[in-house]
Design brief:
584 residues; alpha+beta; ten-stranded mixed β-sheet; three-stranded antiparallel β-sheet; 30% helix; elongated; PiggyBac transposable element-derived protein domain-containing protein; PGBD4_Znf_C
């Protein structure tokens, strides 16, 4: 964003010299960027949120139906004073924790039922409808005479779509380098369970045709129209199923995406650096993800609050349903400002967070160099501003903490003294990591894979978030404490028991590779299990007779096999040759 310079008038110069309290208005905000290289407009991190309100939506009818809040009053930087006995204002309404928690009762809160509170059969049915429609569109675009998987397309169903989700979730636990390896016949790589769910071609064609919107009627002005129905359905379910406890936090999460995308973001402090940015509102006590907003630039689904900038507007948009109830919000220095915290306080909502020292409305702390552990408290009657020196200066703003220091429970190994920190710093460190914990937990078993379509990866990312929330709901309803991975495993089993339709065993195909264990361990011949069709006359072709290189190949039937190798073999001499010779 560029700004035009203007020449100062005589009145401006007089105002600048005599009203030094407002000199910060003429200073530019310092940038946190680690790079001096100019980035494309869609990759520029929003380093100065107070002067970039132009990227917000100006059309109030497209704010997602979120309630609006009153006018914003600016906080002056000249009303702060030194005070080490600050006490936060008493909230007008005390928070009622009795209304918090899961709002939906289930007669049998199994893993599958908890998951279906978010990924409902109606939502899956909509996905099935759009997937079938998109598959027909692709078939119509295919030139006559061209052979491919789409030629054999058969309409999918809700049962098959749930089974497809199970296969995708299982791939998050059973990691392989490519999708085709899940159907590999190599004994060292084989995972035969996937072949019992889908053939390779069927899974790949389902993944290709997976779709969430009708291209003919979609709102092309919405950059998220491809995924809007799923995003709206899940976020609405999050708010209906769970009411948060007192403490909330807002932070951003970055989903890796290196492909072309107009709203791809560059955040150098994040692990992935490039990707799609999500704003998440989380309940601190449980970690439940209460709301999600995807940043799309000028069309982001947030309401513009004049005077709060982009960051403050994000906070107010996400907190709108929870204002006036006595909540406490924790945010980092990208969101914090005295004006925002004052506006939240006027709506009976406390706040605490790190803050940039040059934020508009912040007080001027002493410029002397502080020693480690030194602290300075300033307040304006309603807010507490703290400057505390640890490894470097840390600035914190709070409307809910007192100007006191307390022990951390740790001891300085150099001096032997007990470490102390400001109360607001300790509370911030304890309650600000909810969003990062969601990312960390999902990173071990996430089902999102590298795809050529950005909206498919966002869909899988949203499925992971719904799974995370359903795990919290299951623990809340049953009191059963199980690991996240065990919950996912139980969920997959239950979904398969309810929705999986057994497929016919594959016929033909490529022969399986050589089993490297055939020359080791102990092997004994056993009679072949009888099939329903052949009964006691069940036979299979001997492996050595058909593929051996020491003699002429024969199609010889046998009723014996090696069970560990799952290989039919004549008792003599084929059984001995197969388990003793590398080249039989």
């Amino acid at each position: 964003m560029s700004f035009k310079q203007r020449q100062l008038t005589n009145e401006d110069i007089v105002e600048l010299f005599f009203n030094s309290d407002n000199e910060s208005e003429y200073q530019s905000e310092a940038s946190d960027s680690d790079s001096d290289q100019e980035l494309p407009p869609n990759l520029v991190a929003m380093e100065n949120p107070e002067v970039t309100t132009q990227i917000l939506m100006e059309n109030g009818d497209e704010d997602g139906g979120r309630p609006l809040v009153g006018d914003v009053m600016e906080v002056s930087s000249s009303h702060w004073k030194d005070n080490s006995h600050f006490t936060p204002p008493v909230p007008a309404i005390a928070f009622d924790e009795g209304q918090s928690g899961v709002q939906t009762s289930l007669p049998s809160p199994t893993e599958a039922e908890c998951f279906k509170l978010f990924m409902t059969e109606q939502l899956v049915g909509d996905i099935v409808e759009e997937t079938n429609r998109y598959a027909l569109e692709l078939q119509e675009k295919t030139e006559p005479g061209v052979r491919g998987k789409l030629v054999k397309w058969v309409s999918t169903s809700v049962n098959e779509m749930y089974t497809f989700l199970v296969a995708v979730l299982l791939m998050g636990i059973v990691r392989k380098n490519s999708l085709r390896e899940y159907w590999s016949s190599d004994p060292m790589l084989a995972t035969p369970f996937f072949a019992t769910l889908f053939s390779q071609d069927r899974f790949l064609v389902l993944l290709r045709c997976l779709h969430f919107a009708n291209n003919a009627t979609a709102n092309l002005q919405d950059p998220l129209h491809k995924i809007r129905r799923v995003l709206s359905g899940l976020t609405q379910a999050f708010g209906q199923v769970f009411v948060p406890y007192k403490d909330l936090c807002i932070d951003e999460s970055l989903m890796l995406w290196k492909g072309r995308l107009s709203f791809r973001q560059y955040i150098p402090s994040k692990r992935h650096r490039f990707g799609v940015k999500f704003f998440l509102l989380c309940d601190v006590k449980t970690g439940f993800v209460q709301d999600i907003i995807i940043y799309t630039g000028s069309t982001t689904d947030i309401q513009n609050y004049e005077g709060l900038g982009v960051s403050g507007s994000v906070v107010m948009t996400m907190l709108a349903p929870h204002l006036g109830k006595g909540h406490t919000l924790y945010v980092d220095n990208w969101y914090s400002s005295p004006t925002l915290f004052q506006h939240l306080l006027s709506n009976n909502t406390g706040a605490c967070g790190t803050v940039r020292s040059n934020r508009k409305g912040m007080p001027r702390f002493s410029s002397r160099k502080m020693q480690k552990g030194e602290v300075e408290f300033l307040d304006n009657g309603k807010q507490l501003a703290v400057k505390w020196h640890d490894k470097r200066d840390v600035h914190v703003l709070s409307t809910v903490h007192t100007a006191t220091m307390s022990e951390t429970g740790r001891v300085d190994h150099l001096t032997g003294e007990r470490k102390v920190k400001p109360d607001c710093v300790q509370e911030y460190n304890k309650k600000m990591g909810a969003v990062d914990r969601v990312d960390m937990v999902n990173s071990f078993v996430e089902c999102a894979r590298k795809t050529t379509k950005w909206y498919k990866k966002i869909f899988f990312h949203l499925v992971d978030t719904a799974l995370f929330n359903s795990h919290i709901v299951h623990r809340h309803l049953t009191g059963e404490v199980i690991t996240y991975q065990k919950y996912r495993e139980n969920l997959m089993r239950e979904l398969l028991e309810e929705h999986h339709i057994p497929r016919r065993p594959p016929t033909g195909g490529r022969p399986s590779g050589d089993n490297p264990l055939r020359l080791t361990a102990r092997h004994f011949p056993a009679e072949m299990p009888q099939t329903d069709a052949q009964g006691s006359r069940t036979r299979r072709h001997c492996k050595v007779c058909m593929s051996g290189t020491r003699s002429r190949k024969l199609r010889k039937l046998t009723k014996y096999m090696c069970v560990p190798c799952d290989t039919p073999l004549c008792v003599t001499p084929c059984f001995g040759e197969y388990h003793t010779l590398k080249h039989y």
